[in-house]
Amino acid sequence: QVQLAESGGGLVQPGGSLRLSCASSSSFRAVGWYRQATGKEREWVASITPGGSTDYADSVKGRATSSRDNAKNTVYLQMSGLKPEDTAVYYCFDGVRWGQGTRITVSS
Q: In whole angstroms, what is the distance from residue 18 CA to residue 70 CA?
């Protein structure tokens, strides 16, 4: 069974950085990153195509960079300049499957 697994979340101070990973047991197609804060709806954050083209939500544009290593079946989301409002569970989605999520908490 193909699975997605996110990792890399954690507690970080405002202004800090984290790199999230999304690993698949098979090759990826396009992958989207989403996040869900407590009490809020899940929202799209970023997308990366199989060729590496990216797109970002306005809320993270300039602070987020998505990349992929197709040889490792892994997609990354580098987040910098983190703000308290970035606190959420972050998920990857390949159009069929969701990962289990990894939490980013931004707090001093």
A: 21
